[in-house]
Task: structure prediction
Amino acid sequence: QVQLVESGGGLVQAGDSLRLSCVASGRTFSNYAMGWFRQAPGKEREFVASISWSGSSTYYADSVKGRFTISRDNAKNTVYLQMISLKPEDTAVYYCAAAKTSAVTVAPRGYDYWGQGTQVTVSS
Result:
């Protein structure tokens, strides 16, 4: 089992920045690819970004490319999502997820563990 706890969400204005953190506990963090997803009210959960177990590979949704950066610190069992130039359409609950694979993973079904989510609200 892997437990994931997200933090760092909040209410910001358009153009502001936020950094989300996700701390993992349980199994060896470095054995898992990690991802961030988000879900807005009335919409399906969507992929945001993924990072390989080593951190050498990353992948982003087109909607956040150039504005969001995923990174990880395996010594701290933590994955981050740095978000800049936030837009109102980025408003959602953001979820951290862990996949039992070394490679970046896009599909939600490829993930084995999920956090409870952290709310990000961007006002215009």
The chain has a mean pLDDT of 95. The radius of gyration is 13 Å. Residues 42 and 92 are 10 Å apart (CA to CA).
